[in-house]
Design a protein that fits this description.
Number of helices: 3
Structural class: mainly alpha
Oligomer: single chain
Strand content: under 5%
Number of strands: 0
Order of helices and strands: HHH
């Protein structure tokens, strides 16, 4: 098969068919779940949410939470 002439969607379809044939439907799903990635950029998002707190700021937040 000339994979350069096959679209990415066709490759994905063929791959899912091969996995289903050899692993069964449940095995195929479990295999795909291992490789699924999220969307976005967690590192950049985390920086936006948390900023770059100092150890003193983190300690202060922990103290505030434990006073509750």
């Amino acid at each position: 098969m000339n994979t350069q002439a096959v679209t990415l969607n066709e490759i994905r379809k063929l791959g899912i068919e091969a996995l289903t044939t050899h692993l069964g439907a449940v095995g195929m799903i479990r295999f795909l779940q291992q490789g699924e990635t999220g969307w976005g950029d967690y590192t950049n998002d985390r920086e936006k949410w948390l900023g770059n707190p100092s150890l003193e700021e983190i300690y202060g937040e922990i103290q505030n939470l434990t006073k509750g």
